[in-house]
Amino acid sequence: MKKIHLVAGLLLAGAVILLVISSSDLGTYYTFAEAELLEDERNVKIIGLLSKDKEMIYQPEIDPNRFTFYMTDEAGDERMVVLLSEKPQDFEMSEQLVLTGRFRDGVFVAREMLMKCPSKYQDEEIFVRSEI
Fold first, then answer.
1. DSSP state of 23
2. Hey, how many other C-beta atoms are within 10 angstroms of the C-beta on 93?
């Protein structure tokens, strides 16, 4: 077997593996109610709006990787969210949030968050990922 065939085979296998891994991230968006009904331990994505009239709690001196806020999903259901990361800069200015996480004891625990923020000329997206 020629070396070029071996390299091509390895590249093809790598591409297939990458496609399978990334396809698990292409799932649909859930509502809070749908996500709460799931009994497995998989992460889901929920899209919604920040509830700016509710309390936001971030105490970096106690736990710098815990930020609590409220979000309203596309179905109009408002729930408490715990983001396992620091509070993003200009968080209050976000127009839309996409959270990735799961329910634990009635609270949505997010490990990742994508914020869509308004901009004068174009929409900016800010991605926040937990190191935990």
1. H
2. 14
Distance, in Å, from the CA atom of 85 to the CA atom of 71, rounded to the nearest integer, reads: 16
Give the type of residue at 29: Y
**Separation of alpha carbons 103 and 11, rounded Å:** 38
Residue spans of beta strands (DSSP E) within the chain: 29-30, 44-50, 57-58, 67-73, 78-83, 96-104, 107-117, 124-129
In the prediction, which pLDDT does 121 show?
Answer: 45
Sign of the Cα torsion 27, 40, 31, 37 reads positive
Least confident range from 27-31, 54-58, 66-70: namely: 27-31
